[in-house]
Amino acid sequence: MADDDVQIGRQFGIFLRRADRYYASLRSPNGLDLERAEYILLSRIASGGPARLSALADHVCLDLSTVSRQVDALEAAGLVTRTPDPTDRRAVLVGATRTGVEVFDRNRDRWQSAMRDLLAGWTAAERAEFARLFTRINDTMAELGQEKR
């Protein structure tokens, strides 16, 4: 294995652990209101519009039962509602409530502010290159994940 492969693997593992810790550090009384999994799911619902549970599960790369439990929690908190799918009355669509959109917007703004703080010492060119490469690795992981299904 090449030295850069070892270094990339090591840094990727460190990134995953530090990203979780960083997100958790933002969950203060004046910080983020949502757990990471709730934020990811509410983000899709609030910004993408109502969706079936199966589409949400596919989007967040989790099994249907896990997403169903998370939607139950978001619904109990008054952040989402379930309505019959007009194209198939057997299915339901999960949509954000007004409160859900407000909570999502507040959390998104705080998260984006934290990202700006994190990258404050980077030049515009470095941020653009990082965004390009980060998008590339996410796209590659999505493609490889589809192949393994």
Model description:
With 149 residues, the protein is mainly alpha-helical. It folds into 3 domains: 1-30; 34-118, Winged helix-like DNA-binding domain superfamily/Winged helix DNA-binding domain (Arc Repressor Mutant, subunit A, Orthogonal Bundle); 122-149. The chain has 6 helices and 2 strands, in the order ααααββαα. A two-stranded antiparallel ribbon has the order 1-2. Helix 3 packs across helix 4. The longest helix has 24 residues, at 124-147. The mean pLDDT is 89. InterPro entries: HTH_MarR-typ (IPR000835), MarR/SlyA-like (IPR039422), Tscrpt_reg_MarR-type_CS (IPR023187), WH-like_DNA-bd_sf (IPR036388), WH_DNA-bd_sf (IPR036390).
List the helices and strands and how they pair.
Layout: H1 3-25, H2 36-48, H3 53-60, H4 64-76, E1 80-85, E2 88-96, H5 98-118, H6 124-147
Antiparallel strand pairs: 1-2
Helix pairs in contact: 2-4, 2-5, 3-4
Distance between the termini: 27 Å
Return the average pLDDT rounded to an integer. 89
User: Which percent bin holds the helix content?
Assistant: 55-70%
The low-confidence runs, each spanning 5 or more residues with pLDDT under 50, are none
What is the CATH-assigned architecture of the largest domain?
Answer: Orthogonal Bundle
Q: Quickly name the level 1 CATH class of the largest domain.
A: Mainly Alpha
Helical segment count: 6
Computed structural class: mainly alpha
Principal-axis shape equals globular
% residues in beta strands = 5-15%
Radius of gyration, CA atoms, in whole angstroms: 18 Å
Q: How many E strands?
A: 2
Helix and strand string, N-terminal first? HHHHEEHH
Provide the CATH topology of the largest domain.
Arc Repressor Mutant, subunit A
| Order of the strands making up the biggest sheet | 1-2
Q: How many strands, which pairing sense, and closed or not: the largest β-sheet?
A: 2 strands, antiparallel
State the domain count: 3
Please, what is the CATH homologous superfamily of the largest domain? Winged helix-like DNA-binding domain superfamily/Winged helix DNA-binding domain
InterPro entries: HTH_MarR-typ (IPR000835), MarR/SlyA-like (IPR039422), Tscrpt_reg_MarR-type_CS (IPR023187), WH-like_DNA-bd_sf (IPR036388), WH_DNA-bd_sf (IPR036390)
Keywords: DNA-binding, Transcription, Transcription regulation
Protein name: HTH marR-type domain-containing protein
Domain HTH marR-type: 5-139
